[in-house]
Inverse folding.
């Protein structure tokens, strides 16, 4: 393997069967110019073994092509090292990329940008990340799941992140697989039980939540069509990207 060009694991690697043949910098689907309803992101969590050189490669491509690069993680300091996050922020700054939120991407294109997002509901670790994000003047997106179960303090932390200028978007009511749920109960049941309850609650508290990130990236054409009634963009992951 060429030094500094670590091959990112894909679906086969996650099941222990092998490694993906492409590097992240060669994956066209994680770069966008606003032409797709479903946007695709690549994990930087520790299990993907992202290297500093690889981070530089993807930033360089986004800068050269004037596209938006999509990267995501979950819990800073737990699923992803803080040093990895800082490497991403520093590389984006060095390559003069804008920090694009999904709210911005929902409204139009942001040439030469990084869309960095965090999934689920790790409010304490997200809040602890605020000073680092402020140092780089970075704006990121937090895709929130299980909003109805957040404590009062967690909701206050989420509000502080929003007040900092970060984007608060939607990641389902109970973090269930859209594909599995729809197969068992139907797409309309998925929308009624897994989308609408927490979505309505978040919008009632003032979060527009126009973009939805699929839990586990699990999606298909039927779920995409059903969710188009409620969101302007959907976010999948590299291994479930439709294009």
């Amino acid at each position: 393997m060429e030094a500094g060009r670590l091959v990112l694991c894909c679906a086969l690697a996650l099941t222990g069967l092998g490694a993906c043949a492409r590097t992240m910098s060669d994956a066209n689907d994680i770069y966008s110019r606003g032409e797709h309803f479903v946007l695709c992101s690549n994990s930087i969590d520790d299990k993907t073994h992202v290297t500093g050189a690889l981070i530089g490669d993807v930033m360089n491509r986004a800068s050269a092509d004037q596209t938006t690069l999509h990267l995501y993680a979950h819990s800073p300091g737990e699923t992803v090292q803080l040093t990895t996050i800082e490497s991403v922020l520093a590389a984006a700054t060095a390559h003069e990329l804008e920090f694009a939120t999904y709210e911005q991407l929902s409204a139009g294109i942001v040439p030469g940008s990084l869309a960095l997002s965090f999934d689920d509901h790790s409010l304490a670790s997200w809040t602890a990340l605020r000073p680092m994000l402020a140092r780089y003047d970075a704006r990121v997106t937090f895709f929130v799941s299980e909003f109805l179960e957040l404590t009062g303090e967690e909701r206050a932390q989420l509000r502080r992140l929003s007040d900092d200028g970060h984007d608060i978007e939607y990641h389902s009511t109970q973090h269930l697989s859209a594909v599995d749920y729809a197969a068992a109960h139907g797409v309309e049941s998925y929308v009624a039980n897994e989308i609408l309850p927490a979505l309505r609650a978040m919008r009632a508290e003032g979060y527009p939540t126009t973009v939805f990130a699929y839990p586990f990236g699990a999606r298909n054409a039927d779920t995409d069509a059903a969710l188009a009634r409620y969101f302007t963009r959907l976010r999948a992951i590299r291994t479930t990207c439709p294009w």
Q: What stands out?
A: The chain has ten helices and nine strands. The longest strand covers residues 113-120.
